[in-house]
Design brief:
Elements: H1 6-21, H2 29-53, E1 62-70, E2 75-81, H3 85-102, H4 111-130, H5 134-143, H6 145-155, H7 160-193, H8 200-206, H9 212-229, H10 238-245, H11 248-258, H12 260-273, H13 275-301, H14 306-325, H15 330-361, H16 377-391, H17 397-411, H18 419-443, H19 460-478, H20 481-500
Antiparallel strand pairs: 1-2
Length: 501
């Protein structure tokens, strides 16, 4: 059904909420915080209304809203949701209010501006997942950079300016290359269809027919932009700096949602638009993904800063997702999509927990801790639970995604070698090493500093932030079909389409 306005409502609730924040007096920080939380919760409720009306048996887009925007160029305001975007939209609307609650005490200055940028960031993220016009998609893709740049640059750590500029330049550079490829594709489509168009569904019909040598360049341009965002080795260097310097809420959003835009872009654009090139380059990209899995894990092992350790774990975990995407099997694609959600939950919770202890001690150095399990048992339990989830313990969410990716990679006819799965499996072992070793040094042994004896355990606000994430960690681990069925038809139809070409 076209022109279902609820997708636009989902987009405009946080946008209007952000604009209204600017009308609040700066001195009324508690009211601003409550308003930001209220707006993000209303956005979550709207996303749940969409979820209840979503039909997972339909392979196309649902809740479509299409309006002519720039008729002379055939550019439309075109939104829609399918089995890929529904999970990421729910993740976005779920993580945003939790991020705002986590920053209740830690963001003490410029609360109005912080709330404004957080809501604006939510608009950008939702816009990326909803857009079915590549021009509209590009606007949201770029617009999302601005609030994240300010969140890191204003509320970040000591090297926040360096980190925010590096984040901006890396992402912007990739985006401009992608813009050239978008224009190139749209112009080529105009020759084939008789009119210029940026409609993604029209471009899906044209992309596979692009001459192979041109298609390869277009594919590489799109892939470069998305690989920077993932980030895929060796384009990952901006991520540890951005994570370490960002405030807790920024790190949670960055890990929880922003990184998924890279993997989302690979699935939404690269695979269906350029299927022949996707298969051609799949072994090379998979090698980079496996290098990222092993390299990210090994570098995480030697980190002395808890936040940097979790940041490098993201490089390793997102390597699994990229491997699953380019294995071109239904199991691996399902695993990649659910692993995007799993990483958002597990790593988001890890950053929340690192933020909690940092607020109390003002240090993230692992060496400054030790023996805190006796002092803050609830915190230690939460940290262990989240670490096991990130490792991929059976019964928790991480296991499902990694199992499906490894199974699909093992069966992959495109990769054609079971060694890809063998090397990727080593990343699971390394994850256990660096996370459990960090846990041992932080929570067990002797208490290294007297000030640690005064540590307070998790308070009600922090528990309210963490418990919803823990519910989904267990839910996905025990009964994943609730979530897998949403993307099953999409995954199967995409893989069947590509393998037939």
């Amino acid at each position: 059904m076209e022109n279902n306005i609820i997708t636009s409502v989902l987009l405009f609730v946080p946008l209007v909420g952000a604009m209204l924040v600017l009308l609040f007096p700066q001195k009324n920080a508690p009211l601003i915080r409550f308003w930001g939380l209220f707006v993000s919760l209303v956005t979550f409720v709207v996303s749940m209304v969409i979820y209840t009306g979503f039909d997972p048996s339909v392979s196309g887009f649902q809740f479509v809203h299409k309006i002519a925007w720039i008729p002379s160029l055939n550019i439309t305001y075109y939104l829609g949701i399918d089995g890929l975007s529904i999970l990421l939209i729910l993740l976005t609307t779920f993580i945003t209010p939790l991020s705002l609650i986590s920053s209740w005490k830690s963001t003490g200055h410029k609360v109005k501006e912080f709330t404004f940028f957080m809501l604006l960031l939510e608009v950008g993220m939702l816009g990326v997942f909803l857009s079915l016009d590549i021009f509209l998609f590009y606007i949201f893709w770029e617009a999302m950079l601005i609030p994240m740049y300010f969140i890191i640059g204003i509320w970040g750590g000591k090297r926040r300016i360096y980190a925010s500029v590096k984040f901006f330049i890396f992402t912007m550079a990739g985006s401009l290359v992608m813009l050239v490829a978008m224009i190139w594709l749209a112009v080529y489509a105009s020759e084939q269809l008789g009119s210029f168009t940026t409609n993604l569904l029209d471009l899906y019909k044209v992309g596979p027919n692009v001459p192979h040598n041109i298609q390869s360049w277009m594919f590489l341009a799109f892939t470069l932009s998305f690989a920077i965002k993932v980030p895929l080795f060796p384009l990952h260097t901006w991520l540890p700096d951005a994570h370490v310097e960002a405030p807790t809420a920024g790190s949670v959003i960055l890990a929880g949602v922003l990184l998924k835009m890279g993997t989302y872009g690979l699935i939404r654009f690269c695979l269906p638009l350029f299927p022949q090139s996707s298969i051609q380059f799949a072994p090379y990209i998979s090698v980079l993904a496996i290098i990222g899995i092993i390299y990210g894990a090994l570098v995480a092992m030697v980190q002395s800063d808890m936040k940097k350790l979790v940041a490098y774990s993201s490089v390793a975990h997102l390597g699994f997702v990229v491997l699953g995407i380019f294995a071109f099997t239904e199991e691996a694609m399902q695993g990649a999509i659910i692993q995007m959600v799993n990483h958002g939950l597990s790593t988001g919770a890890l950053f929340l927990l690192v933020g909690v202890i940092y607020e109390r001690t003002h240090t993230r150095e692992i060496a400054d801790y030790g023996g805190i399990a006796k002092i803050v048992p609830v915190y230690a339990t939460a940290l262990m639970f989240t670490s096991l989830s990130s490792i991929g313990l059976p019964g928790l969410n991480g296991f499902i995604g990694e199992f499906l990716i490894l199974l699909g990679t093992f069966k992959s006819s495109v990769l054609g070698n079971w060694w890809f799965a063998v090397f990727a499996t080593s990343g699971v072992i390394f994850a256990a090493v660096y996370l459990l070793w960090m846990y041992q040094r932080v929570c067990f042994g002797k208490v290294t500093h007297d000030k640690l004896n005064k540590l307070e355990d998790l308070n009600t606000r922090e528990l309210v932030t963490l418990l919803p994430i823990f519910v989904f960690i267990v839910w996905i681990g025990i009964y994943p079909s609730t979530f897998l069925r949403l993307s099953e038809v999409f995954s199967n139809s995409l893989i069947n389409y590509i393998m037939k070409i």
